[in-house]
Design goal:
Length: 312
């Protein structure tokens, strides 16, 4: 790994702030970016979409006016957006900020997006049309649970990091397996994300598990009070419910309520449970990275000091 000190001028310096959902990344990022006179680069895979505002905990317009934010509201909901596109667009932003002498602070909880941006993305190649059609036909005939069970059998490493309802990524992993005869996890292990064009400092936010869960429950409550259901109803007037971003955490739960599949109590219970499980997966992902330096959200001064030394 490249050293995270200011003594290697050949590569631009980039700081990242990571952590589980609801841990407080937005508020901490604003405080740190202000102290740095820096700008924030979003690394949340849903905040890239326009119209998905409340359910993605997107920074408010006032917060975005306080500190410039990048890669928020850059795609319409039906528009394809993945880690490869994020890597291309994110690196263009980072190089522009570096050229202007502005310290970049990448902020988000989508581990794959962060990894792709900072360490490169392995090449899977374009999907094979016949394979893609066949897998989608199997989805229609067999259902997603059967395909997820197949993925568990073929590629347990990939299945373990995907939610059983993550249709897009489950299908993509099965396409790779069917087209190449190799599991997606094997391609990832072989690549090892060696493309490191930046010097990177990673700061992580963590809280006691019970406190994090309390914050998750409170966030869901505040989102609903802010009109999350109305936001989703408006989206359903314009887009089909199986659209990729509408199948994301929270959105699919409330869509199941609005379409009568679940009761309100069921939707709320499963939403809370799945958000906690997602936070646990995020903690596992970031916790396995030895480069992350961990802090609690109230340790602003300590994090600011580390950033000041890093950017020199």
């Amino acid at each position: 790994m490249e050293p995270t000190t200011p003594h290697s001028p050949q590569k631009p310096r980039v700081a990242a702030l990571v952590g589980a959902t609801a841990v407080g990344k937005t508020a901490v990022a604003l405080a740190l970016a202000q102290g740095l006179s820096g700008e924030i680069v979003n690394a949340d895979s849903l905040q890239v979409y326009r119209e998905l505002d409340i359910g993605t905990a997107k920074p408010s317009q006032e917060e975005r006016e306080l500190i410039p934010h990048h890669l928020i509201d850059v795609a319409d909901p039906p528009e394809p957006y993945d880690a490869a596109r994020f890597c291309r667009e994110g690196r263009a932003v980072l190089h522009d900020l570096t050229r202007r002498g502005v310290p970049p602070l990448v902020v988000g909880g989508t581990g794959l997006y962060l990894k792709a941006l900072l360490s490169g993305l392995f090449a899977q190649g374009e999907p094979v049309a016949g394979v893609r059609d066949r897998v989608r036909q199997e989805l229609a005939s067999l259902g997603l649970p059967a395909l997820y069970a197949r993925l568990i059998h073929w590629d347990p490493a990939t299945a373990s990091r995907l939610h059983p309802h993550d249709t897009y990524r489950i299908l993509r992993a099965l396409e790779v397996m069917a087209a190449t005869g190799k599991p997606l996890s094997e391609f990832i292990a072989a690549h090892r994300f060696q493309d490191t064009p930046f010097q990177v400092l990673k700061l992580g936010l963590r809280l006691d598990r019970e406190e994090l869960y309390r914050r998750i429950d409170l966030r869901v409550e505040l989102m609903l009070e802010a009109g999350w259901l109305d936001e989703i109803e408006g989206l359903l007037h314009r887009y089909p419910p199986d659209l990729k971003p509408l199948q994301a955490l929270g959105y699919r739960h409330l869509i199941n309520y609005l379409t009568g599949r679940w009761s309100w109590d069921e939707a709320l219970t499963l939403l809370t449970r799945d958000t906690r499980r997602y936070a646990k997966r995020q903690l596992t992902w970031f916790g396995s990275d030895p480069a992350v330096r961990w802090f609690t959200p109230d340790q602003i001064d300590a994090m600011a000091a580390v950033l000041a030394e890093f950017f020199g």
